Amino acid sequence: MSVCIVDAQAEHPSGPIADLIWTVDKPLMTILFGTRDRWRRVFASDWPENNGIVCHKQMTLAVRNQKILGVLASHTLEEFGEHFIHTRERQGRNEGAEFRKHLNHAFDLMAELFPHGLEGSYFVFDLEVSSKARRLGIGRQLLDVATSNAKEAHCDRICLDVAADNDAVQFYIRMGMHVAVETRISELADRHGVGTHLHMVLPVRDSAE
After folding, report:
1. 3-class secondary structure for 107-174?
2. For residue range 95-141, what is the model confidence (pLDDT) as tens digits?
3. CA angle 128, 100, 79 (to 5 degrees)
């Protein structure tokens, strides 16, 4: 059976989607949330909402035989700022005051690690394909969705951030992306081993348009 690319619905189970997102950048996710179980709980608070970084409204799924094989979370740059505020307010709300304090600091570090995109950018926050479904063209299909969304929103480029040592970097280069900025935050690198991240860009509109 072929893979279907569908807009996410609140009724989709949040656990498998959270698990896929966890694999995008495990070192960074571990710093943010500690364990995958805690991330699952935190993610579940965002998933059914209509406004947030990883709420269902911002997600596209690759599905085959009712199994979720790939995820795309994406936003216009203007949307992302608003969605980040809503997510920051919700995530960790039920995990205790100490974790909330930690998460606020971790979010500040993440904001430093990920440079603000240029005006007219369409931001891919997460794109991940299950390790069991690689080489099926799912990553390309999801990036095509992001490209279509970017054009519909009259954006000039797609941007995303990825760890420099992530194998996905080579995929993005094959898709025509280039590295615009390299970032390294001393606290993340020296204390937690989170190294250089790349801000990659893909033009989606011809200069004559």
Report:
1. HHHHHHHCCCCCCCEEEEEEEEECHHHCCCCHHHHHHHHHHHHHHHCCCCEEEEEEECCCCHHHHHHH
2. 999 999 999 999 899 889 998 888 899 999 999 999 989 888 999 99
3. 50
Separation CA 62–CA 72 (nearest Å)? 9
For residue 40, give both structure tokens.
Answer: 């699952």
Question: pLDDT, tens digit, for every residue of 169-199?
Answer: 999 999 999 999 999 999 999 988 899 999 9
Give 167's contacts (C-beta < 8 A, 6+ positions apart).
none
Closest CA to 69 of 20, 135, 126, 23: 20
Task: Yes or no: say if 62 and 4 are a contact pair by the CB < 8 Å rule.
Answer: yes
DSSP state of 3: P
Helix (H, G, I), strand (E, B) or coil at 81: helix
> How far is Cα 115 from Cα 77, in angstroms, rounded to an integer?
12
